[in-house]
User: Fold this.
Amino acid sequence: MKNLKRILTLLMSAVMLLTLLAGCGGETAEDASSSEPSESAVVSDESSSAPEEEKAVSKIAILLPGYITDQSWNQGAYEGLLELEGQGYEIAYTEDVQAADMESTFRTYCEDGYDFVIGHGVQYGDACVRVAADYPDVNFFITGNPPEGENLPGNIAFYDYKEFEGAYVCGYLAALMSESGVIGYIGGGDNTTQCSDKNAYVQGAKAANADIEVKTVITGTFNDSSVGKETAIAMIEQGVDVILQTCDETGLGAFEACNEKGVYCIGYTSDQSGLVDEGLCLTSLLVSIPTMITSQIDIIAAGEFGGLEQPGLAEGVIGIAPYSTEVPAEIQQQVETVKQSLIDGTLTLTPDYSNN
Amino acid sequence: MKSFGARIDDTIRNFSSRMVRQSVGRKAAIFSLSVLAALVIGAAFLLVLKVNPLTAYYYLLIRPFGSFNSIGEMSIKLVPILLVGVGVSFTFSAKLSNLGGEGQMCLGAIGMTIVGTSALGTSLGGWSIPLGMLAAALFGAVWAGIAGFVKTCFHASEIITTLLLNYIAVQFLSYCVYYPLRDPGGNIPQSAKVAAVLPKLFSGSRMNAGILIALAAVVIYAVVIRRTSFGYRLRVLGGSVPAAEFSGIRRGKYYLLAMMLSGVFSGIAGAVEVAGTQTRLLEGLAGSYGFDGVVAALLGMLHPVGVAAASVLLAVLNAGAETMQVKTGVSSLFVNVLEALIVLFILLGMSYASEDKKPRAKEGAK
Amino acid sequence: MNEILTAAFLIPLLTAGIRMSVPLILGSVGEVVSEKTGVLNIGLEGQMLTAALISFIVAYYTGSLTLGILAGGISGMLGALLIAFWCVSRRQDQSVVGIMFNIFAIGFTNFLYRAIFGVSTNKAKVEILPTIEIPGLSRIPWLGEILFRQNMLVYLALIAAFLVLFLLRRTKFGLQIEATGENPKAAQASGIRVRRVRYSGSLFCGFMAGIGGAFLSCGIVGTFTENMSAGRGFICLAVTILARWNPAFAVVAALLFGTVQALQLRLQALGSTLPYQFFVALPYVVTLVSLAVFGWNIHAPSDLGQPYNEESR
Assistant:
C-alpha cells in the first residue's frame, strides 16, 4: 500500500506540472490550435482580411484518400485548400480516410459546422449520399462520378471530370515514343476513374500504333511507393519503355524505378517532370484540382451548386503538360492534333469502366 | 513432456488467476491509476505536438457524450467491441488466447452480405436480417473452429493460428468485394446494399438495433459462464487442466466448442457492421475491433459488467479520436498509444499487487 | 506460363525475392533465438516499425546510413527491453504484451514522424543503400546476378543466420539457450541464469528486428510511410514455426515468402488474372497448413510462452 501511495503522489505531481505547462504553452480550442505537425489542420478564420460580401461558406473540409505528400492527387487538393485559406476560409483535412470510416468522418465535419465538405475521389460518393440527406445545409462535393441508381440529394455536386481524355492522349504519345513496342500503365485502385484511364490509355495507344503492346497493372493501393517501384521494375524487365502512372504515392515509387533505369515516364495530376532526370518525363496528365475546388466557391455563392458536371480537356480541367525535350517535333505535332480533336469534338470518347 | 499447445494453454493461467484473486477495490485502484498514468504520459506527447492536452482530452473523452448524435456515433463503435469482447471472454475463461476477433468478424460480415444481397434476401425483406445473422454466426463459428480444430487435433498454439487466420480472412474479404460479391451497379470495391438494414433507434442519431443485440450478448455471457454447466466446465478447464480432465471434461471438445462460440459472437459483430452501420460490405470493416475486443475482455477481467464497461471506454476512445483529430489535428492513431499504455500499466500494477501477497522469497541462485 | 520460365523473368524475380525477404530473414532469425529461450515475441512487428522510423530519422539528420541502421537496431533492442521487462521480470502474458506493444508502436511512430517532420508536401527522403557487387562471384551466370549484386544488409542477414546456427549448435551459450527454453527449472538448478538468458535472447531478437525495420526504410525506398512494416513481423512468426526453430531453414522459408511477394507484383503485369489477394494470403495459408500437417512433429521449446517464476516450489 505504501508503494501505491508513492505512485499516486508521483502521478499527482506530474499531472499538476503538466497542467501548468499546458496552461502556459498550449492554446485553447477557441484559438483554434494551429498545431504544425498535424494530420488535420485547423486554421483560424482571418476575418479581418475577408472580402466584404457575405461568404456563402466559411468552413471547408476535405476527405483525402491518401497523404498530402504524394506530389499528385492529394497534394493538389491540399494546395487548393491552402489557396482558399489564403482567401480567408477556415480549412481542415483528414488524410487516409478508409472506406469504413468515410461516413463517420463526413458526419464529424458536418456536426462541427463545416459547410463545404469535399470527398476527394469517386469512392466517397456512396457515403456522401447517405450523409447529405441528413445535412441539407451543407454543400458536398465529390471529385468523381455519382453512384448509380440513387436518388441524389441536391446538395451534392459531382465532378465527373473526363480524366480519360487525357489518358487517351498520353497513350497516343507513349505508343509513338516507344521503341520496344511495349508500354505500361500503373493504376492504384479498381474504381471508375482509374479503369476508364486505363482503358483510354490502351485505346489511345492502339490508335497511334495498332501493334503496340500495353501492360497494365492496378496495384490496389495509392499509398505504397515500394509496391509502385517493384511493379515498375517488373514492367521494365518485361520490355516496357514508357510508363504512365496514376496512383499518387505508389506512382512516386514507379517514377523512382523509371529514373533508375532510364525509362520514359508520364506523370499525373501535376507536372511531375522535376521528379526525374532531365527529359525522362515525357509529359504529365494534368488535373487542375486546385481550380476544381476553388471554382466551386463561386458556384455556391451564385446559388447554382449541385448536380453533375463533366468537364474535360475542352474546359481546361484536364490538360497535358509541356512535352519533354526528348519528344521530337513531328510527334508533338501529331499528339497536339489528337488533343485538339478531342477539344473541338471531332473525336469523342466514351469512358470504359470495365476492369478486365 | 507436455506438448507445445498444452504449454501455451498454461500461459494465461498465471495472468488471469492472479487478477481474479485481487480484491475489487484493489482492481479499481490499479485500473484508475493506470488510466491516469497513461493520460499523463499522453499529455507529454501532446505537448510535444504543441497541442493543449486538456483540450485534446476534452474532445477525446468528454465530447463523445456531448450530444445525442455523438452518443450514437459512440454506440456504433461500442457494439462490435462489446460483441467481440464477450466472445473472446468465453475463450479466455478456458485460458485460450483467441486473438482472431478480426478474422471472425470478417467472415461474419461476408455471411451476412451473402444473404443480404442474394435474391432470397431481397425477397425476404426484413427477415433477411435474422437469416443473415444466422449465416454470420455460422461463418464466424467455422472460422474460429478452424483454429480450435487445429489446436485440438494438432496442439498448435491458438495464438498463432488465430493471428494467421486474421490475415487470411482480411484478404478473403478483399477478394469478395472485388469479385464475387461486388456491386454490379457501381465500380468500387464494395458489395451491393443489403436487402434490409437494422432500424435506427432514435432519429438524429445513428444508434441502431445492434446495441440491443450487444446488450443481449452480455446477458447471455453472464448467464452461460456462471449458471450453466457448460460455462462451469470452461472455467474449470481454465483453472486447471489436470483437474478438468480428472473430472471427465474432455479438453479437446470444450476447446473447440469455446472457440466456435466466440466465433458466433464475433461473426454477429461483423453482421451488425454490415447490416447496421455500413449497409454493405467494405474493406477495413473490422478495423481494430478484433483487438479492441481482446483488450476489453482483459480490462474487464472477464466479468460481464467489467467487459461492458471496458468496451464503453474503448468505444469512447475510438469515437473521441475522430473528433479530436478534426478539432486539434492530433491523429486518431494517437489513441493507440493511450490504449496500449493503459493495458501495460494495468498489467504492471497487477504484477506488483500480487507480489505483495507472496512472502518475500530468498534470492535464489541468480 | 512460358514467359515465367525464362531467365529474363526468373533472374530479376529471384533478385527481388531476396531483396524482399531480408526483413523476414533478420526478424525470424532473431525470433528463433528469442523463442528458443522461451519468450514468444509477438511485438516483433512493432519493433520493426519503430526501428524503420528511428533509423530513417537518424539517417536523415546525420546523413549516414550506417548510423541510421545501427540506431534502428538499438531502438529494436529498447523495444525488446520493454517487452522483456514485462514478460520476464514481471511475468506477464507474452502475447498480450506483444500485441499491446504493436498497437503502441503504430500510434507512437505516427506521433514521432509528425513531431519531427511536421506537415509538408515534400516527403523527407534519404539515400538508400547502394548495391554492392562482389568481385568475381557476381560474374557467375544466374547465381552471380541473383546473389552477389545486392546491398550490404542482404549479405549481413545471410551471415547472421549462419552465425546464429553456429551459436545454437556449437557453443555453450547455445546449449544454455536451449535448456532455458526446454526446462527452465532444470536449467536454473544447473546454474544457468534463466532470466539473463531470456533477456539476452529478447534483446538479440529486438536488435535483429530493428535492423530489419531499418532495411525497410533505408534499404528499399528511402522514406518512411505509415505502418510500413505491414505485417512482416507476423510473417516472421510464421517463418519461425515453419523453420522449426532452425535459423538455416528460416532463411529458406523467408526466401520463399519473399519470392512469393515478388512474384505477386509481377504476375499482374504478365497478364495473370489471379486476384492479388490470393498471393498476399498465400504465406499465411502455407504456414497454417504446415502447423496442422507437421504439428505433431514440431518440437517447439517446451516452455515457450510460459512466464518463469524462479521462486515457485
Notes: Residues 357-366 of chain B have pLDDT under 50 and may be disordered. The CA atoms of residues 355 and 362 of chain B lie 14 Å apart. Chain B has 15 helices and no strands. Residues 7-355 of chain B form a domain with the ABC transporter involved in vitamin B12 uptake, BtuC fold (CATH 1.10.3470).
